[in-house]
Amino acid sequence: MTSNVQEILNNPFINQGTAFTKDQRAKLGIEGMLPPTVQTLEQQAEVTYQQYQTKSSNLEKRIFLMTIFNTNRVLFFKMFSQHVMEFMPIVYDPTIAESIENYSHLFVNPQNATYLSIDEPDKIEQSLKNGSEGRKIKLIVVTDGEAILGIGDWGTQGVDIAVGKLMVYTAAAGIDPAEVLPVVLDVGTNNQKLLDDPLYLGLHHKRIKGEQYHQFVDRFVSAAEEIFPELYLHFEDFGRDNAASILDQYKDKILTFNDDIQGTGIIVLAGILGALNISGEKLSDQKYLCFGAGTAGTGIAKQIYTEMVNSGLSEEEAKDHFYLVDRQGLLFEDTPDLTPEQKPFTRKRSEFSNADELTNLEAVVKAIHPTIMVGTSTQPGTFTEEIVTEMASHTEHPIIFPLSNPTKLAEAKAEDLIKWSKGKALVATGIPADPVEFEGVTYEIGQANNALVYPGLGLGAIAANSKILSETMISVAAHSLGGIVDPSKSGAAVLPPVSKLDVFSQTVAENVCNQAIKEGLSQNDYKNGHDAVTAIRWQPKY
Ligand SMILES: NC(=O)c1ccc[n+]([C@@H]2O[C@H](COP(=O)([O-])OP(=O)(O)OC[C@H]3O[C@@H](n4cnc5c(N)ncnc54)[C@H](O)[C@@H]3O)[C@@H](O)[C@H]2O)c1
Ligand SMILES: O=C(O)C[C@H](O)C(=O)O
Ligand SMILES: [Mn+2]
């Protein structure tokens, strides 16, 4: 049995370590259990950051930060707030990919996550209660690990994406870390390497599909809604066969969000609006090419289509701006194996004299002359020099977003895109990219990663205790990201910088919350978004 005293120092939600004052130490009965000098949070953050700097690899840095996270949440988030730009790629994408791939072998602590097994569905309710330990959970990030970033199926090891996404929620938008719960639905894995590894910590069987899978997901959703009545339920990295159908099943009934579909849709729309602000062009003049029409690719296309319709185009007119390319090449009405999300954006073969040849990206780019090309294909290096120069020869300001994560999967590097297009391309990448120097101009590269928007969106929806997440709340979020970048400056980024993440998350949250209030979706008494958001925003302090 653990004594109460030990529980205090082992509970990251209440532990303050060396910052416990003499009075607190006496009251809590922990005198003599810490060195005598009482430190300030600032001193703790300083000494911990010094230790962090001695770690040489990014993975070691992440592992070190996780020990702080597991020991003392306030200290962890204090440091995160002081070093946002530096910590984002360590805590989150791309380093998180390495941590997921090696999870079972690196395991030391479950990080207050909840692990649900499809083999024991009767334990869902109790497991959620155990995991939350009486905390009032308002935000769950759940994954089933099937499509982690672009690295595929990692089974139970995918839990780290839920943990990492939640860390960014708190760092960016001040969601109280005691009110969140990372959840993994372990339904098996088709990753043979994991199945063959006796040390793999998840279920050692293939993924269960069909009715049993859907019942398990539904039972989890019902239990979570029942146990945590004010819940915002965030789905992350589900596979292409399930992500959109699960969202459609719940989006009009509960407050839920799919990050890969909606979060990515919002950030890419915001990036395109930023790019058009720089080029002075109109959205309705653009030709949009999606490369990799899976969960994210079709989610983005739908968001941009919705924006076109909202700005006055008919549905038919708006659809005519889209071209989707997947494994089969350009997607036509009669292409085999279309997903339900791809179908609305397919083309007619009769539009092209060489339709049968449009089986690869280069041929499609030559045939359609896109002005926007967004990569969510998981295929590295596929935005080649030939393709980019061809695109740039037909449009003054090609908008090119290689979004596949992590770094090793990106369709192109920002530096190459700027160079190949002779500085014409307006670029954003999924992972952080350094500024690019080209012919005397410094090009800032925006990060089109849903992390720039999901925290503010969630904070706004939670502050409103909204009934659902409406399309207009989503659209408001996309439009909130303008204004921070000065588009008249040469080489300006298409999106605001991660260094201002906390500032624009607040703007997004207030606007989203106001929209919920306006639509009558809010279930609390606040009259405006500013008050509602400010009231719940958590700060790292003792
Ligand atoms: N930057 C961001 O915020 C962000 C957000 C979501 C996803 N992503 C990235 O996008 C990528 C895709 O994620 P997803 O969740 O949509 O996965 P997904 O599996 O649903 O979609 C990938 C799609 O690419 C297609 N594809 C595979 N090989 C191809 C090829 N050779 N040519 C054309 N298409 C091909 C697949 O058939 C599939 O439709 C991942 O790398 C992910 O990290 C980035
Ligand atoms: O996790 C990220 O970095 C973004 C996105 O959700 C992805 O799946 O790639
Ligand atoms: Mn994702």
Automatic annotation (TrEMBL):
The protein's name in its UniProt record: Malolactic enzyme
UniProt cross-references to Pfam families, sorted A to Z: malic, Malic_M
Reaction(s) catalysed by this chain's protein: (S)-malate + H(+) = (S)-lactate + CO2
Homology family: Belongs to the malic enzymes family.
InterPro entries associated with the record: Aminoacid_DH-like_N_sf, Malic_enzyme_CS, Malic_N_dom, Malic_N_dom_sf, Malic_NAD-bd, Malic_OxRdtase, Malolactic_enz, NAD(P)-bd_dom_sf
GO biological process: malate metabolic process; malolactic fermentation
Subunit structure: Homodimer.
Protein species of origin: Xylocopilactobacillus apicola
Keywords in alphabetical order: Lyase, Manganese, Metal-binding, NAD
Signal peptide location: none
Active-site residues, as the UniProt record annotates them: Y92 (proton donor), K165 (proton acceptor)
Ranges of residues in domain Malic enzyme N-terminal: 69-251
CDD domains: NAD_bind_1_malic_enz (cd05312)
EC number: 4.1.1.101
